[in-house]
Specification:
Strand content: 15-25%
Number of domains: 2
CATH superfamily of the largest domain: Ribonuclease H-like superfamily/Ribonuclease H
Largest sheet: 6 strands, mixed
CATH architecture of the largest domain: 2-Layer Sandwich
Shape: globular
Order of helices and strands: HEEEEEHHHEHEHEHHEHEEHE
Number of strands: 12
CATH class of the largest domain: Alpha Beta
Radius of gyration: 21 Å
Helix content: 25-40%
Structural class: alpha/beta
């Protein structure tokens, strides 16, 4: 049975929807429905204490948060209960910003934004900060990319908790294949026009609201994962000849600080420390283990 947002009209009140349901009755067909604006996905429980989330997406002039800039910022607030049900969805807010330089033609091709469209535009920083500051959790689909840009542009919210719907869920274990937002949403039965920030945050909210086979929502799973403590392991002064072993083990090179690092769950610390001592340091030196919470996760390396 297809899961419908509560704000949508009855799923059987149009000939097209009746045709879609007819096709869905056959295993030979899959039907995708277009995402529509929504006000909630689940009825609120009277007296329940709800929390606030904000979905975020940015379009930028490039991939480097130090030299590139945001050209479009979209945020949308939502309320959710302890089980991860989304009980209220606010209005999306979208701002464009003139980066002060010509766009790479490939960025225009990807986003549809042009120099003419961006000219003279700017983000309403006060309103953006007000909305983001109200969040108990900020969610992005690739927070490692979005957060450094947002923190740089809006430093007043730099200490907020973030979660990543791309990296944190075990999508294969949840019954999905792939991790791209449009692909995940399609597996939930929806489609949308991507590469624009406003469309991406709506798609993200639909994905978070999706009910999993065990009765949880994607948001419920993400909340549990984001609250688990973890460690950032910095392989400081690791010998050069260990670089291939570190890379194969999931470490990434930090060019600014010049060491290999990765993040691991708290439960894996002992095993990771033993592996590093045996396979990397071999009696000379030791790694650094730094506790990481949702407030530090996905921050730019400094």
């Amino acid at each position: 049975m297809h899961a419908y947002p509560l704000a949508m009209s009855s799923p059987s009140d149009t000939p097209y929807e009746r045709a879609a349901q007819y096709l869905e009755a056959s295993a030979d067909y899959r039907v995708l429905r277009k995402l529509r604006p929504v006000t909630r996905f689940h009825a609120p429980t009277p007296g329940a204490q709800n929390r606030i989330g904000v979905a975020v997406d940015v379009e930028t002039t490039g991939l480097d948060h130090e030299t590139d800039a945001i050209i479009e910022l979209a945020i949308q607030r939502f309320r959710f209960d302890e089980a991860g049900h989304i009980v209220q969805v606010g209005q999306p807010r979208v701002w464009r910003e003139d980066p002060g330089r010509e766009l790479d033609p490939r960025i225009t091709q990807l986003t549809g934004l042009t120099d003419e469209v961006l000219k003279g535009q700017s983000i309403d920083a006060d309103t953006a900060v007000e909305i983001l500051a109200s969040a108990d959790l900020i969610v992005a689909h690739n927070a490692a990319f979005d957060r450094p840009f947002v923190d740089k542009r809006l430093p007043a919210i730099a200490g907020k908790a973030w979660a990543c719907s791309l990296a944190e869920p075990d999508w294969l274990d949840l019954g999905f294949d792939g991790r791209a937002l449009a692909h995940l949403v399609a597996q939930c039965g929806w489609f949308y026009e991507g590469h624009r920030a406003e469309n991406d945050i709506l798609a993200l909210i639909y994905l978070l609201a999706h009910a999993l086979p065990d009765g949880r929502t994607v948001l419920g799973d993400l909340l549990a994962r984001s609250q688990r403590p973890s460690f950032r392991v910095n392989a400081v002064d690791a010998p050069f000849e260990a670089k291939d072993r570190l890379k194969a083990h999931g470490y990434r090179w930090n060019a600014a600080l010049r060491f290999w690092s990765r993040e691991i769950p708290e439960t894996e610390r002992a095993a990771e420390e033993a592996w590093l001592k045996a396979e990397v340091y071999t009696g000379h030196g030791a790694p650094a283990f730094l506790p990481v919470s949702a407030c530090e996760r996905y921050k730019a390396a400094c």
